[in-house]
Amino acid sequence: MKWEGQSSAEFTCQQGVRQGGILSKDMYKIYVNELLNRLSIAGHGGKIGEINCAAPTCADDVTIISDSPEVLQSLINTAVDYSKMERYLLQPTKSVVLQIDNTSKVKKNKQINDKCSWTMDNDNMPIVESAMHMGILRSAATEETTVEYNISKARRTIYSLMASGLHGENGLDAETSIHLLQTYVLPILVYGLEVILPKVKLVEKLEVLHRKFLKQILSLPTTVANPAVYIISGAIPMEGTIHKRALALYGNICRLPEDSIEKQLANRQLLVKSWESNSWFIAIKKNYCEIQPERSNRYATITSYEIAMEGHCAQNCKLILAQ
Q1: Residues 289 and 296 sit within 8 Å (Cβ to Cβ)
Q2: What is this structure's pTM?
């Protein structure tokens, strides 16, 4: 262990997994899988159709979803009991309750929910307006909060790189500057947006900032036409970048086993939801139909297997967008 330039004596890790280790994430998934099974077997919590989605999780970032205060408390108790059995501590400052008033059922019971409180091991859990889950700032307006959060982080990142010469005139050459921008700044700017798929106004906000960065590092006047900025830099507009990442994510879902929750959700949403739905999978279907005009019938039934096996998704669509 290092602290203020000093190194401690070597010691063996007796509990937990190595921070930042290659196998740590997979090892922890095996360890925590029993908790996820318990939450799923309970049969309560959030559902899409008949598919249980009560506990979306990545490594130690666990979210419990429910539209009932009582059921939510029951699932929290399950997680607390499991932590005691396995002898690990839950972080009280990071364990919060976020109320999302999107459904009519929740709105109908809003006055009741506002009076509710939830406890974790007899301590009241804080009720917040926004919370971080898997690097995405969730709130009642997740699109806006996430875009603003990403923009703030991207600005701080590019300012920190200015000392390295990423400032345009008298700085690094254009090719190196663009490479740094694409490697360190762009992933932060679009992080998580392939899941959220922000609206046009928010995408335009990202476009304005992206073009500002490009003009700055290429020493271009602010009056240069937008198409010229992308042609000179070879960069892809934000909308295309987000669509590429979304299609790549969808391709990963299509390659999952048939009994996986993500694959079941893909098949269900594509078969059940209408064209006007706000479902993420319907948004992917719309992108697919835009790229393949011959399949632009909004009423056509397109399954996840069909999109994946026809080869129009993932890699082919990414190439088309890049062109």
Answers
A1: yes
A2: 0.77
Residue 242 CB-half CA count within 13 A: 26
Contacts of 55-58 with CB under 8 Å at 24 or more apart are 57/32, 58/134
CA atoms within 13 A on the CB side of 316: 11
Instruction: List CB contacts of 79: < 8 A, sequence separation 6 or more.
Output: 35, 39, 62, 64, 90
What angle do the packed helices 238-254 and 261-272 form, to 10 degrees? 110
E strands, the chain, are 2-3, 6-7, 47-48, 51-52, 57-58, 61-62, 97-98, 119-120, 123-124, 127-128, 130-133, 136-139
CA separation for the pair 110, 217 (Å, rounded): 49
Bridge-based pairing state of the strands 127-128 and 97-98 = parallel
Give the dihedral sign, CA 293/295/296/302. Answer: negative
pLDDT mean over 160-186: 87
Separation between Cα atoms, residue 151 and residue 188, nearest integer Å: 8
User: What is the enclosing helix (H) or strand (E) of 152?
Assistant: helix 142-160
Q: Quick count: other Cβ atoms within 10 Å of Cβ 142?
A: 18
User: Which of 79-83, 158-162, 296-300 comes out lowest in average pLDDT?
Assistant: 296-300
